[in-house]
Specification:
Blueprint: H1 16-19, H2 39-55, H3 67-74, H4 95-100, H5 104-114, H6 116-121, H7 127-140, H8 144-153, E1 171-175, H9 178-194, H10 197-214, H11 234-239, H12 245-279, E2 289-293, H13 300-316, E3 339-342, E4 347-350, H14 352-359, H15 362-403
Helix pairs in contact: 2-3, 5-7, 9-12
Length: about 400
């Protein structure tokens, strides 16, 4: 989100003063009204910058972030299609955006016909990924799954995609105890409010969003409008000055609490991504991950700064760092894209782990209990019918016997 101009506080952009300490790139250069700036556009611009930094004998540091965007810089995982985006407003929507307007099940059905392998890996509700796979096929004539197979089969490729673009890469993972992280994230939201978040929200809504809301064409799924922290204040922004002050205060507090909740949820998602994508995935194309504990900020120099500098310096010199990378048991047999259909709950589940979790969920067990109770009643009813029929046959036999001379 930091590539877009505006919403500097919400997207936690580095301050101009901090930017003078070290060169920063990819910040505030896309117009907020551009809704189809893609990961391909990001990768192309960032890759050129990385090459330029290397040419000047400097070390590029990717700070994240948005998971898929980081992956696009590490591996060959993307497919270029005909559509190209220029960071300017007023441009016609690309094919993926057009496809996303269709019904999710219709989209998934279309993908099933042209690329059944990819369709089996994607949930019908994940319209963005389904639309992207359809776009790849429409604009290249080649199934998306075929592109991915080709990338993984390249020399140095693996489960995550093609070979590493920069073989001498390392990852520094800053992590904290959950309680410390949650407390810090709540404080971050409070600090954002103190830094003028409300004024930023009002100004951005007035300049870029008010007209869209009035025309009932607001879209919180694309571009900067999907930023965590903007859509959470939707009710407050559209009713401010039009409702009692008490109601407005309640909506503001609701937005603040929603922002805190979504921020913590996203942080958990980021940590889960590191574990699943880097630590549990075997293969030659996964860079080493070095964990740095940041729960106690008073120990920053000892726990973070000094070991990070030692690790990076070792990599620059082509040596093995004294610190050991984080290791987790690889789950080789786990299929993260397996396709499961729970007819009981009328749901599609993607992934072995997700399927195992679903079968143990309260919702599934509740439906299972209801089904067993229904089956038990049907079985009992069938038994009564059978008994009645047997009795009728027996009575008929006795009657025949009594009538016999």
């Amino acid at each position: 989100m930091q590539v877009y101009k505006g919403l500097d506080i919400i997207t936690n952009k580095i301050s101009p003063q901090e930017q003078t300490l070290c060169g920063h790139h990819m910040i505030s250069f896309v117009d907020p009204l551009v809704s189809n700036y893609t990961v391909v556009d990001f990768r192309n611009k960032a890759a050129a910058l990385i090459e330029d930094i290397f040419a000047r004998e400097k070390i590029p540091i990717v700070v994240g972030g948005t998971n898929y965007y980081i992956e696009s810089l590490l591996w060959k995982v993307l497919v270029d299609t005909k559509e190209k985006t220029s960071p300017s407003p007023g441009r016609a929507a690309d094919r993926r955006v057009e496809l996303e307007q269709l019904d999710g099940r219709e989209l998934h059905c279309r993908l099933s016909h042209v690329d059944p392998e990819m369709a089996a890996k994607l949930h019908p509700h994940d319209k963005r990924k389904v639309a992207r796979s359809l776009q790849v096929f429409e604009e290249t004539g080649i199934p998306h799954s075929e592109f991915l197979h080709r990338q993984r089969e390249e020399e140095g490729g693996g489960p995550l995609g093609g070979p590493l673009k920069y073989p001498n890469s390392c990852i520094l993972w800053l992590y904290a105890d959950q309680a410390a992280l949650d407390e810090r994230l709540d404080k971050r939201v409070d600090d954002m409010m103190a830094a003028g978040l409300l004024e930023e929200l009002r100004d951005f809504h007035r300049r870029y969003n008010q007209e869209k809301v009035a025309e009932n064409c607001q879209d919180y799924q694309h571009g900067i409008f999907q930023s965590i922290g903007f859509k959470e204040f939707h009710e407050y922004l559209i009713t401010e000055g039009k409702c009692p002050q008490e109601t407005s205060a309640l909506l503001l507090e609701k937005g603040i609490q929603a922002l805190k909740l979504v921020t913590k949820r996203y942080a958990r998602k980021q940590n889960k991504w590191v574990r699943n994508r880097f630590l549990r995935r075997p293969g030659p194309n996964v860079p080493p991950v070095y964990g740095l504990q940041v729960s106690d900020l008073s120990q920053w120099d000892e726990d973070v700064l000094k070991p990070a500098l030692q690790i990076v310096e070792s990599f620059i010199q082509g040596q093995q760092p004294s610190a050991d990378p984080v290791k987790m048991e690889s789950e080789i047999n786990e299929d993260k894209r397996s396709h499961h259909v729970c007819e009981l709950c009328n749901r599609v589940i993607i992934g072995d782990r997700e399927w195992a979790a679903h079968t143990k969920s309260k919702s599934h067990l509740h439906h299972l209990k209801k089904r067993r109770k229904l089956d038990s009643k049907l079985s009992a009813a069938e038994s009564r019918v059978n008994v009645t029929e047997t009795q009728g046959e027996s009575e008929g036999t006795e009657n025949l016997g009594q009538d016999r001379p």
